[in-house]
Amino acid sequence: MKKLLKGLLIDIQFFTAIPVPIEIPMDKPHLKKAIQAFPLLGLFQGVIYASLVYVLLEFTPFSNLAVAFLLWLTTILLTGGIHLDGWMDASDGYFSYKDQEKRVEIMKDPRTGAFGVISVIVLLSCRFLFIYEITEYVHFLSYILIASIPFLSKSVMGVLLLTVRSAKKDGLGALFQNAATTKVLWTYPVYILGLLAISNYFNGLLPITILIVAAVAIYIFCRLKAVKWFGGITGDVLGASVEGTELVLWMTLWLLHYFVMG
Question: Which of 10, 107, 172, 245 could join 153 in a cystine, given CB atoms 3.0 to 4.6 angstroms apart?
Answer without folding.
Answer: 245
